[in-house]
Amino acid sequence: MPTAAPDTQDIALPQEAAQTTTPAKDAVRIKDLHKSFGTLEVLKGVSLTARQGDVVAIIGGSGSGKSTMLRCINFLETPTSGKIIIDGEEVETRADGTPANRRQIERIRTRLAMVFQSFNLWTHRTLLENVIEVPVHVLKIPRSEAIAQARVLLARVGLADKEDSFPAFLSGGQQQRAAIARALAVDPSVMLFDEPTSALDPELVGEVLTVIRDLASEGRTMLLVTHEMRFAREVADHVVYLYQGRIEEQGPPAEVFGNPKSERLQQFLKSVS
Question: What is the pTM of this model?
Fold first, then answer.
């Protein structure tokens, strides 16, 4: 697939698949996204589309704008300009990029779940309490129902025997798996992973990647910022390479990793191999 211009790269289904299956609906679409912090422009017109069931791996060097892009999608950061569309619904914004409808943002956030680098678990609450917090207090799910579902999710990530444990008494890998269970508790339509293994010791990375791999095999829509190149190649449907706030190259993993067109991407892959 030829590389598109930096401000117009939308991720598309492979042509052969599009001819034989019903095209999936867009789960996330961002158009000409810009984000500045003072005079520092971090995102310089990023456009991409992830369709339902896509696993999109976002790679690039430090400072390329990967995490900022994810945080803008979830409005943890306010975009300077551009459009964000979730499940076909465009986020209403003012001229300066700030949300115009706070209730809409709160509703859209229930469709998104983000897993951070640093786990972000509530340290004064057990794993079970961490997982039920949003379902009970935000989604207003009955506590007994939320607890039953939380136990299913903790078992799913291999933590069935840790529901009464506090985060401080768990390994980093266990904490991150608990964070994934917490994200799943809202039954999101899209999961955002911001370098979920970067804070882990090497021997703990595999257990977290195994959980993410299982989620990908279920057909969950995921945008995954990662520095695990082998994992991205094996799991992703599409790979996006960001360089200095722009999409430098994108395409299927076999093309991006096996036949990179951009010299910058070639150098990046050499540096992380």
Answer: 0.87
